[in-house]
Specification:
The complex is a heterodimer of chains A (about 120) and B (about 110). By secondary structure, chain A is mostly beta strands. Chain A has no helices and 12 strands. In chain A, strand 10 and strand 11 form a beta hairpin. Chain B has about 110 residues and is mainly β. Helix content of chain B is about 0%, strand content about 50%. The N and C termini of chain B lie far apart (about 35 Å). Classes of the chains: A mainly beta (about 120), B mainly beta (about 110).
Chain lengths: ~120, ~110
């Protein structure tokens, strides 16, 4: 069963505007972590932002913020004031497991973001 | 402070051959995870090593095996290569085995199987 779902294969946004990338997840664990990564065409995977399952506040990191809705199992990434350099592939990921038994990180299929000048 | 390093950068093999990929974790990190990323897809978790033991494994056949050394570096071995093994192989490191720790990724090894 799909554990991470990103329903937007591609998104366009005008430079300087905000954009929301959607992500839903499925897990029966109570303790898990949610991550967003950016992958430019160079292939490097860049960590953007993290949300823990027990965090009550939505995570923010500079221009990146999460709209975390635990009951709906969704964690949408909001990028404010888009820049041309934001054009890349964006992956939502979930880490589940146990601190003694190790953990797995499951990635979604990704959303390709195009920022227009 | 060196980040995660991987070698080689690119590799070309033929079907049936064996390959070994290497990863050195970020300084201070002791946990290494390996991922396979086929073209146009998200990374798929292969396995995770901590304290020189495989702690978690994804849905990959036994042809995929690994090792972690006392200095925390790791190897990924793939036997009997198939065309479908062509992918970007990413290594990620973190500190301790925890759901809350950020993973840092290496630049990847691009494997092409002919």
């Amino acid at each position: 069963a799909q554990k991470i779902t990103q329903t937007q294969p591609g998104m366009f946004v005008q430079e300087k505007e905000a954009v929301t990338l959607d992500c839903t997840y499925d897990t029966s664990d109570q303790s898990y972590g949610l991550f967003w990564y950016k992958q430019p065409s160079s292939g490097e995977m860049i960590f953007l932002i993290y949300q823990g399952s027990y965090d009550e506040q939505n995570a923010t990191e500079g221009r990146y913020s999460l709209n975390f809705q635990k009951a709906r199992k969704s964690t949408n990434l909001v990028i404010s004031a888009s820049q041309l350099g934001d054009s890349a592939m964006y992956f939502c990921a979930m880490r589940e497991g146990h601190s003694t038994g190790g953990f797995k990180t499951i990635f979604g299929a990704g959303t390709r973001l195009f920022v227009k000048a | 402070d060196a980040g995660v390093t991987q070698s080689p950068t690119h590799l070309i093999k033929t079907r049936g051959q064996q390959v070994t990929l290497r990863c050195s974790p970020k300084s201070g990190h002791d946990t290494v995870s390996w991922y396979q990323q086929a073209l146009g897809q998200g990374p798929q978790f292969i396995f995770q090593y901590y304290e020189e033991e495989e702690r978690q494994r994804g849905n990959f056949p036994d042809r995929f095996s690994g090792h972690q050394f006392p200095n925390y570096s790791s190897e990924l071995n793939v036997n009997a290569l198939l065309l479908g093994d062509s992918a970007l192989y990413l290594c990620a490191s973190s500190f301790r085995v925890s759901s809350y720790n950020e993973q840092f990724f290496g630049p990847g090894t691009r494997l092409t199987v002919l």
